[in-house]
Specification:
Length: 252
């Protein structure tokens, strides 16, 4: 993974959003990079004509050139139509739905890592991994496997041996990852439950800890457990929170 000036990875969920900047857009990812994020999280979907784009839901809501609301089912729509949408009414091209290729190029040139949520499971995992490697993101990509487990991990590792993976505690048990070479060093378990018992179970699995949904109220509690990854919602000011954590490290 990217060499960091601190001991955890700060991840911006769907980028960083402000007024006039929509989540999961190039503008949101670029702003996350400018604010110092080590990683962005995004979601993959595939259009009717086979273009891999980034969007959380199976459908995308936006506005046409007249500012009228439009909704497309991604798997039933060509990218040429989706690309015309603006995710904010009367927004500019920075607020359109980007392709995964565009996002990978952005993360490469900004020096960030990327967490790609495989919303379609194993179906397009190989295509996504090959694209990431072709964009220079070998060893800088984390894949959210969404329960696809060992099958998806083995497939992706055959393309990028340095890839990392993330999933829930239930999906990343020792039994379910049996046979994955060096799995503890490759797998993050994510959680928003920072109770001692839950964290002990995650650490006991041997996997790395990803604390998610962090904000100014719960970050200190999460960092008591020294997470390997800290993921912030796209509206959460991770830059300020990280600085507060660093400055108050000895008091946590």
């Amino acid at each position: 993974m990217k060499k960091l000036s601190k001991t955890w990875i700060s991840s911006a969920h769907q980028g960083f959003v402000t007024e006039g900047i929509h989540s999961n857009t190039l503008a949101a990812y670029m702003l996350a990079a400018k604010k110092g994020a080590d990683m962005i999280e995004t979601d993959e979907r595939t259009t009717k004509d086979g273009v891999i784009i980034v969007n959380h839901d199976p459908s995308v809501k936006g506005f046409d050139e007249n500012g009228e609301p439009v909704e497309y089912v991604i798997s039933e729509t060509d990218y040429s139509d989706i690309a015309k949408l603006r995710l904010i009414r009367n927004g500019g091209p920075e607020n359109r739905v980007p392709t995964l290729l565009e996002v990978l190029n952005l993360t490469y040139f900004t020096g960030m890592c990327i967490n790609i949520d495989l919303k379609e499971g194993i179906a397009h995992a190989a295509d996504v991994a090959r694209m990431a490697v072709s964009c220079g993101m070998r060893g800088r990509t984390v894949y959210a496997t969404n329960g696809s487990g060992k099958a998806a991990i083995d497939l992706i590792l055959s393309i990028d041996p340095d890839a990392k993976f993330i999933d829930t505690k239930a999906n990343f048990t020792k039994e379910k990852l049996s046979g994955v070479k060096d799995y503890p060093s490759k797998c993050f378990v994510y959680t928003g439950d920072f109770s001692d018992g839950n964290i002990a179970e995650i650490r006991g699995s041997g996997c790395m800890l990803a604390a998610i949904s962090l904000n100014a109220e719960n970050a200190a509690d999460a960092f008591r457990h020294h997470p390997d990854m800290a993921e912030y919602p796209h509206t959460s000011d991770f830059e300020t929170i990280d600085k507060d954590i660093l400055s108050g490290w000895t008091t946590i």
